[in-house]
Amino acid sequence: MMTKTIHLGDWVTYKPRANNGETKVPVAPQVGQLIEQHLENGTTINVVHSAKGHN
To answer: What domain of life (predicted)?
Structure first.
């Protein structure tokens, strides 16, 4: 499995996740702009600002 490198400001497709880590349903991919990346317990967390009108 290849991991694509994304950078701050990139527009990305992602699946929203609930606070408990479970994927929300429906799991239709959303498009948003990556605004922050940080590590939590060794896991990269990507913070995405969703595009207007796509909540």
So the answer is: Bacteria
pLDDT in tens, 35-53: 888 888 988 888 888 765 5
Give CA–CA dist 8/48, Å, rounded: 9
Domain boundaries, the chain: 11-50
CA separation for the pair 50, 43 (Å, rounded): 21
Tokens 């701050």 appear where? 8
Tokens 């995405």 locate to 48
Q: Is the pLDDT of residue 25 over 80?
A: no
Predicted TM-score (pTM) of this structure: 0.48
